[in-house]
Design goal:
Protein name: Glutathione S-transferase
Organism: Bradyrhizobium algeriense
Helix content: 40-55%
Number of helices: 9
Number of strands: 4
Structural class: alpha+beta
Strand content: 5-15%
Order of helices and strands: EHEHEEHHHHHHH
Strand order of the largest sheet: 2-1-3-4
Shape: globular
GO molecular function: glutathione transferase activity
CATH class of the largest domain: Mainly Alpha
Distance between the termini: 39 Å
Radius of gyration: 17 Å
CATH architecture of the largest domain: Up-down Bundle
Keywords: Transferase
Low-confidence stretches: none
Number of domains: 2
CATH topology of the largest domain: Glutathione S-transferase Yfyf (Class Pi), Chain A, domain 2
EC number: 2.5.1.18
Length: 215
């Protein structure tokens, strides 16, 4: 079995929030890999306008997730953390180790993560008072989100047939965040296969154990 690059000791500490879709992505992966019990989740508030000194001790960007390993090493960014957890579980569990499938999986993860980045920015803009909103940005966010969802609808057959991995987790977390923060968008309309796939994702034990909540 391939060994991880760092020593984790008995446990790992994760800067965590029940509202963060990127944190959820890490925790879904941890549950799928059988590593959830090795992670201590520490409630951490990461607001864009208010740097959190406690988070910054580990991640100077004041962003979550940030994973602190047993030897004090800090890993930042959900994609990096998931790849580390996958290596800890032996490698190749959620991320194909090589070849065409690896690049497809990583590209799908990047697309879903990009959608999440867009949604966070879109929500921040929508929450501004009416006179301070930039309508060109709101329109651009809507166009890009719809186009991404249409692409995922076209890829729904692949999501259904390919081995479950980080691409599935990232897409599932992004769609769940849409339900959580953008219920008014009714993203399922006109996207029946993607909607059906999301229902199967939401029913997985790892997804049920990590449902996003406003707390």
């Amino acid at each position: 079995m391939k060994r991880p690059a760092f020593s984790t000791g008995e446990s790992m500490k994760l800067h965590w929030s029940p509202r963060s879709p990127f944190v959820r992505k890490v925790m879904v992966a941890a549950h799928e890999l059988g590593l959830a019990e090795k992670i201590e989740c520490v409630r951490s508030v990461a607001a864009m306008s208010k740097p959190n000194a406690a988070i910054m001790l580990d991640n100077p960007l004041s962003k979550i997730p940030a994973l602190v390993l047993g030897d004090g090493t800090v890993l930042v960014d959900s994609a990096v953390i998931v790849e580390y957890l996958d290596s800890l579980a032996g490698g190749g569990q959620l991320i194909a180790p090589a070849g065409r499938q690896r690049w497809l999986v990583l590209s799908r993860q990047a697309l879903a993560d990009g959608l999440l980045d867009l949604l966070v920015l879109w929500r921040n803009e929508r929450d501004k008072p009416a006179g301070r909103q930039t309508h060109e940005w709101l329109d651009a966010f809507a166009v890009k989100a719809a186009a991404t969802l249409d692409r995922l609808e076209a890829e729904a057959a692949a999501l259904e047939s390919e081995p479950f991995g980080i691409g599935h987790i990232a897409v599932g977390c992004a769609l769940s965040y849409l339900d959580f923060r953008f219920a008014d968008l009714a993203w399922r309309e006109g996207r029946p296969r993607l909607a059906a796939w999301q229902a199967t994702f939401a029913a997985r034990p790892s997804a049920r154990a990590t449902e996003i909540v406003d707390g």
